[in-house]
Amino acid sequence: MTSYKIRISLQRYDIAKYGIKDLNWFCRPCEMRYWPEHDERVVSDNPANSVVPADPLNEAFVTGHCCEPEPLDSSLESDDSTSNDDVIRYRILEKGSKRGGRLLVASNGYTYGSKSQRNNKSSTLWRCSVRSAKLQCPATVSQRGHYFQPGTRPHGHPADPRQPIYKEVVALVKEQIESNRHSTASAVVTDILTTLLPEEQHFLAPKFDLLKRIANRHRAGKRPRVPAATPNATSVCYSPLPLSRQLTGRGDHNVE
């Protein structure tokens, strides 16, 4: 049997003790509950004739909104430049080598010289230009039209990121110095570094003095050679002929 503690105030206890008023005892836990009066009507939580409004949250789940793919934010799309960082770009310089031959420069820091051209002339094999007595780099690139395919053999030396810009600027200096015969080497180099070369690539370009010397050397090599000086007729010494031959020469009269 459950026992409960029943408490009353002292004033009510005195009133009940002296018979002034009856004492009403009640359960303390039951006091916290709500007991309606006799004349109070209790409204049902779900009457029969009531209309339940549609719940938009439930309708969203019923229609399958959560399963539909949401459009991606355009700001989160990856940039094309970042995806193309690993793509190697090639460029052919017709007079890019030291001897004025064709040179293939790659954006990853390697350069190639033309090794051979196939019989059908549809493909070209390029070989790494780093070839010396100490190192013969075996790396190659095969060209077919505008498509370049690196070979299977790797490079035997690290890449130089300055080489592509260096070779392109030097080839451009040689081309401009040939077409502008009346311009000085300083003017040609200044025009290339300020107008033709992007500003973000200036730190990769060769020094100004080096480009100036290359321009002057290339122009001097293209000048026609001056023929050797012919001896002056007045400076030639002829040995005199004998007197008999002078007098009996052709067209001369004999002197007795």
End-to-end separation: 188 Å
Structural class by SSE content: alpha+beta
Strand order of the largest sheet: 1-2-3-4-5-6
**Shape field:** rod-shaped
Measured by DSSP, the beta-strand proportion falls in 5-15%
Query: Quick one: biggest sheet?
Result: 6 strands, antiparallel
Low-confidence parts: none
Question: What's this model, at a glance?
Answer:
It is built from eight helices and six strands, in the order ααααββββββαααα. With 256 residues, it is of the alpha+beta class.
Give an account of the 3D structure:
With about 260 residues, the chain is of the alpha+beta class. Among the domains are: about 60 residues, no CATH class; about 60 residues. It is built from 8 helices and 6 strands; from the N terminus they run H-H-H-H-E-E-E-E-E-E-H-H-H-H. A 6-stranded antiparallel β-sheet has the order 1-2-3-4-5-6, with helices on one face. Helix 5 crosses helix 6 and helix 5 crosses helix 7. The longest helix is centred in the last third of the chain and has 17 residues. The model has no long low-confidence stretch (mean pLDDT about 70).
Quick tags:
single chain, 256 residues, six-stranded antiparallel β-sheet, 8 helices
Topology at a glance:
Layout: H1 10-17, H2 28-31, H3 56-62, H4 80-83, E1 90-93, E2 103-106, E3 111-117, E4 123-128, E5 140-144, E6 147-150, H5 163-179, H6 185-196, H7 208-222, H8 243-247
Antiparallel strand pairs: 1-2, 2-3, 3-4, 4-5, 5-6
Helix pairs in contact: 5-6, 5-7, 6-7
